[in-house]
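The freezer alarm interrupted the setup, so I double-checked each line after restarting. Inputs confirmed:
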Amino acid sequence: MQSKILVILLLVLPLACLPARAAAAEVGSADLIEDAARWDGKTVSFEGEAIGEILPRGDHAWINVSDGENAIGCWVRADQAEKISLYGRYGVRGDTVRLEGVYHRACADHGGDLDLHADTLRVVSRGAEEPVPLSRPLAAAAGVLSGGAILLAVLAIRRYRCYNCE
Amino acid sequence: MRKNELTGALYPVSYYLGLVAMTLGALQLIPALTSLVYREWNILMVFLCTASIALILGLSMMMLGFSRRREKLSFGVGLSVSAGAWGLGMLLCAIPYRLCGNYLSYLDSCFDVMSGLTTTGLTLVQNMDHLSNGVNMWRHLLTFLGGQGMIVLALTFLAKDAGGAYTMYVGEAKDEKLMPNAVSTSKRIWSISMFYLLIGSVVMSLAAFAAGMRGGRAILHGIWIYMSAWSTGGFGPMSQNVLYYHSALFELVTVVFFVIGSFNFALHHAVLSGNRKELVRNIETVTFTVTLTLTASLTALGLMRAHVYPNVMALFRKGFYQLISGHTTTGFMSIYAKQFYYEWGDIALFAITLAMLFGGSACSTAGGFKGIRTGIIFKTFQAEIRQMLQPDSRRREQRIHHIRDIILTDKAVRSAFVIVTAYIITFSIGTLAGMLAGYPLAMAAFESASATGNVGLSIGITAASMPAFLKVTYIIIMWLARLEFMSVLALIAYGLRKVKRSCSQKYW
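Predicted 3D structure, all chains:
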């Protein structure tokens, strides 16, 4: 009896030590676009900056995530998308997120879109507002040039009126 | 006498070029205002600087030629002014791009301006997803302006007695006379465009709301995408272009607007004046329907053989969208550029390349051969074949219907063949340049067709990293194709004559 238990333990223990799921392959957007057939239907891990805004669709949402080369559309649960606080745009660096999910080279559910259906979404680092400081030389140049343009416009209007009077 | 003609023309030329520069300067106040509203202070300063530069230059040139502005320009000089205005416009409009920090060089800035003004839509912008609202407004405004015509806008500010108005109008590849003269025709073209701008911006903004966007951003994206669709430009505010919105409705609305935008202004004028039958009788709409059906069938066949899309709906949504976007020379994309090369297969690529070359209608915002020329060539072939089969039969008059029934003259047929041949030569040169830069034939031909047809679909060649000579080649191709060759060739001839004259003066 004891030997039977030992055999069962020896068989089961290694299985228990295995991770719950095979680790998803880390991919970049270029891999997904240029080697689409290879990754189609596979679970992948993709990391990048959330850009633009959340596009809600009921209990799910679209987010677009850019790894610097291309932005990939990611289909996520609405509660997952809520973890993202900042989306990248002018003067704003969006949250960096890591998504794991199934990649589709031409998604049957979404009209053939190349997309990633995310199972998990983790915020790797928070984004931040990055205001662009006003360049003083540029402001000075703008002042001088605008003044010059207004002056010339006044001169041109005067000349035009004189011409019409004649 | 010839010398006097050339130097004498410089004053009215100066006046008209100044008018264009001033118009472009005034137009920059719109992105400046956008930057002010969104508190993009640096971008506001950039536009104040560049608007002032354009206004100073424009006003100075206008003042120089003001007293002689009513002098008539010869046909060649008028055409040269049109081409020159586009060159000057490119140089002026590229300054804000260069100063905003999203372009790696002035050449890249010039490329994007020419692409915008010619409603091509190829872009070299960096970090597009973080682009300011001011710069985005400028990009889309340029493409909207280019669709209607830079000269057409400048002419709307003129009085009816402007001497060189008509030749400049023709020089911008528009030859339809909707009204008795070029100035009132220009005003009519802009009134049609503004009418559609109002409706289109509202509808596109509603589509953006439906796609999940909110607030001012939905409205801005609605306006920009509308401007781009109507002018068959293809620019978008996000790097994924139309794919960013993940919305079938959004894509459908863009199709409606860019198809309408690709129609002849004379057709719009006729339909808006109550002649709705023209829509189904016009040679250009008939030709468009035939070539679209042909190329759409080829695309579907190619995509089915490549087994790219999992169902008919996906195949239709992706295949038909890229095709009609290419055929109307819009260039909106709902796939990634490199998917064309890696996924689509040769047949679908061939069909889209062909569609991009066919293009939209004459006197519209679209590029390519144009429907009227394709129709005329088809009619001529039809007549020739009939003549071959029945050599004894009497040669019948060939007629086409474009607003009214028109008898096809030899001159019209020759003109159609000459322009289409010029397009094919330009396309071949662009393809060769692409291959010299190291790209395979299919890629080089696709990108060249896109530049030649002023389309904007990309297979992945157009990038800031491409060789400078290829950027210059594409700039020239876009410019030549948009102005339909004649005015640029007239400008070159004008320049050569000046150089020859000054050389002979030196020696003698």
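Quick read of the result. DSSP finds five helices and eight strands in chain A.
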